[in-house]
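Re: weekly structure request thread

Next one in the queue (134 aa):
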Amino acid sequence: MLRTAAALLACLAALPAHAAGDLALGRETFAGACAACHGAEARGDGPMAELISIPMPDLTRIAARNGGTFPWLKVVHLIDGRTGLRGHGGPMPMFGALFAGDTAAADAPDGTPVITSARVLALTDWLASIQVAE
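Done, posted below.
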């Protein structure tokens, strides 16, 4: 048991640490993977939005819809596919596999350890940075 825990810790230590604040990577990732549906400024007005069966949410108001707090861990899980989201009559595209190969570790604001793509983490941080007050 101790050997397994030590091996797990060694693997986690080998992962690149998430550099909070890589907003340029987050913005670039959004532009390439999300803007077609969510709009260039994340307001839900992308060119594909009218073809989707549910209204496209304004991503600048995630915190406002959650009592003023940005649900960082929930957003990570929505983007990387751990939490399903219904859209266009089916699940939102899951980008965890698309962003494979740049695995990173981070601590959620509540201290929960997270292992996912560095681009998912950067995108989540960028989305947190563009939140507008209600």
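Residues 35 and 41 are 8 Å apart (CA to CA). The longest strand covers residues 103-107.
Next request, please.
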